[in-house]
Specification:
It is built from three helices and two strands. The chain is mainly alpha-helical. The protein has a two-stranded antiparallel ribbon with strand order 1-2.
Length: about 130
């Protein structure tokens, strides 16, 4: 039989549980606020460096938009030349339906993917 010494406390055990804080987080511990990477804090505090980051994203998005706009202008600008050709009316409708619309769709698809990649790259830069 073991003696219980009054000056000696029983050993304390920490009870853990699985939660949103992660498995094995001690019960009753406060969740720490995540430390913001420097780039994110620069943007949040609207410093010159943060302004530069945001302007970089805006420039890359503008460059993608102008590229898509230029491709569309080239395509639409060439339509009068196509319509001026002496060709049957059916050829014009086929050219519009199977030539122009898929190209417009491809340009739009490229633009959306490029804009999403720009945002993903920016987010990666900020989160690092």
């Amino acid at each position: 039989m073991s003696e219980h010494h009054p000056s000696r406390r029983p050993r304390r055990e920490t009870v853990t549980y699985a939660s949103a804080h992660g498995p094995g987080t001690p019960q009753g511990t406060a969740r720490r606020r995540p430390v913001h990477p420097p780039a994110r804090s620069e943007i949040d505090e609207q410093t010159t460096l943060g302004h530069t980051y945001v302007r970089s994203l805006m420039r890359s998005q503008l460059r993608a938009a102008l590229t898509a706009l230029g491709a569309l202008a080239l395509l639409v600008g060439s339509l009068p030349l196509l319509l001026a050709l002496p060709a049957p009316e059916a050829f014009v409708w086929i050219a519009l339906g199977f030539g122009v619309h898929p190209v417009v769709w491809c340009i739009a698809h490229w633009y959306v993917r490029r804009a999403e990649r720009n945002e993903r790259d920016f987010t990666g830069l900020v989160e690092r």
